[in-house]
Amino acid sequence: MSPFLQLALELAIILFAAKVAGYLSTRLGQPSVLGELLVGILLGPSLIDIPHWFIFKSDTLPELVQDLGEVGVLLLMFLAGLELHFSELTRNTRVSILAGLLGVVFPVGLGWGVGRLFGQTDSAAIILGLAMGATSVSISAQTLMELKVLRSRVGLSLLGAAVFDDILIILLLSAFLAVVQGSDAPLELIWIAARMFLFLAGAVAIGLLLLPRLMRWTDRLPISQGVLALALIVMLLYSVAAEVLGGMAAITGAFLAGLMFARCRERERIESGINALAYGLFVPIFFIGIGLSVDLRQIQSSTIWLLPIVILGSLVTKFIGAGLGGRLGGLTWREAWQLGAGMLSRGEVGLIVAGLGVFYGLMNQDEFSAILGMVIFSTLITPPLLRFLFKEPKRASYSSEALNQPGEGKESA
To answer: Which of 70, 86, 117, 180 shows its CA 20 to 30 Å from the CA of 260?
Structure first.
């Protein structure tokens, strides 16, 4: 079987499994993303291991599937930005900054303390703390879109806090690696912050001044799906620029591109086309791909004491830190805890931090296994927890006959 046919067969299996799992998850009252994540783990090397079946002999196949999944998360974050308005996001700046800041400080501090308590070096303990402080908003964004609350005050605050969290973790990680490698940390930090600012300023300026004109010009051209193609081109370029020029995550660039296109009058046409492309192919591959990239057997038995402490500590500190930041920013307690739950998932961001720690020889396999377990558990718990916290409280209901009876109406008031 040719490499292309192997890819086609694996994609067919992934899409079928994703849709079946998503359907079963919704029938059980949970977001579809939870089912997709779980079936991805079952199909991955933890159990069934379809990437290494005898019919899949291409060495590049796992990388191809992973790359297609990365396109999926870019499309997902683009859609999240497309549902919002820039002015809505800026109105929640105070909440976002406080939630993002405390949602990093609390877990990073605890992670360093836990690492030192278990005899890790300062470097390994700091990497552990940074991995615990990271946030991957893609899981939460998908869940909030399913619950139709992305444009709520909590949803807007969550997205802003996740962007701020991303910036802060990258600054801290870059400064730490600069110190470890003997670089001039203050100058390195200033340069990184300047790159981020220049990228954000440039991306917003282009989005506000150039994109609307470019969109109108493209719409007049006699080309097939020109508006949709332009949106995809800009999304990809913003994603590349975010990582290469701004030193940020590519998903931040995709989200920013979506925000810019949300102002255009062609927004509904773009959203319709992106929705079909994303949820018909790329987004299911992304969620299944998370499971395919996880091997539970990599979790070492020697981390039996470290693992539960890291998992529990990462959940509690992020939940309390981000939630407290939201409360100080003006959210109600209920909204604050919803925000805290949305910040729990570490996803690929936590793994990136841990991977850099291993790459630079700052942590061993046992410490990496603890972070891997934390990432898996936090990713799986986020969708059902958000579903539970956003569930409307039950209100007493009365029949019209009961309401017409004397005295009962007053008691219920």
So the answer is: 70
